[in-house]
Amino acid sequence: MVKKAKKGILLVQLGTPDSPTTPDVSKYLREFLMDGRVMDIPYWSRTLLVKGVIVPKRAPKSAATYSTIWDEETGSPLMYYSRVQQQMLQEELGDEYHVELAMRYQNPSIESALKKMEGMLLESLRIIPLFPQYASATTGSVIDKVMETMRTWQYFPQVSFVSNFCEDDLVVETFSEHALRHDLNDFDHILFSYHGLPVRQLGKVDPAGQLQCDDKGCRSCATETKPYCYLSQCYSTTRAIVKRLGLQEHQYTVCFQSRLGKTPWIQPYTSDTLHDLARKGVKKLLVFSPAFVADCIETLDEIQVEYANEFKQLGGEQVIMVESLNDNPKWIQALKRMALHN
Q1: What architecture does CATH give domain 7-165+329-339?
Q2: What CATH number belongs to 169-321?
Q3: 63: Cβ–Cβ under 8 A, 6 or more apart, which residues?
Q4: Closest Cα to residue 41, out of 129, 137, 149, 109?
Q5: What is the pTM of this model?
Q6: For the segment 60-71, what is each residue's pLDDT rounded down to a tens digit?
């Protein structure tokens, strides 16, 4: 009897260093920042900037930060929750499916994951980049790397990709459920803090090169959901969560964190927003970070430590982070629906 081929599911996260040491963090940063979709400047300029300036300066500081969130047994929180998500999804899908995990940068690599799956002679392969909102620097980079890696395959199963899940009702429900673990009435204001992008990358989704975005995007970004506009999808996720929680417009602000260098990034910046709110007398903040499906250095340190300390120095009292999707069963059900193309 011929054994039926399995259906493959490849979950892809951004990545994490192999350890919280300066050499491993340097290796991770080099691979990450040398991606032409992440730093979209000419190769030689990128090489000089990344290897000659950014990595030598940032790696020791980042290594020290990683060490504060690192677990000796499970490693980084991002790796821990990614493994849990892989295992939970495998249990949900059963033996008919094979669920593999890869990181866009570092380990387990996309190349190693696909090498394993190539030998399984799969019936189909569904790639799910674990980024709710589409951006060329995240989802686009994953798709690019998968396609590049699969060029050498001598057979191709039915291949499909998930480009975004910014309005997925179970994702929205999970974020909202996590927010309601806190009494929303205890907070003076709510932030939706998304990972930032250079402004120039917003316009690049237009193949004709005619789209010009200012630092807050096109006028329609805050009201319309566009298929490949990161900023538009950030606002879309926000609108869905706000609607579910019954928030009013004056109760929340959308902002963007993690900018790098002097080039203009999407605004308003989270840091500037903290300053504005502190000047208005806001004392207690609840912060969503809906660009991430697992708690990581950007949520556990940048928001809960760096921004929290900054806010307190400005006269604020408290910054509370809404837990990411992590291992919530509803989030796993959302992944299951994506895997089944529902």
Answers
A1: 3-Layer(aba) Sandwich (3.40)
A2: 3.40.50.1400
A3: 17, 20, 21, 22, 24, 25
A4: 137
A5: 0.95
A6: 999 999 999 999
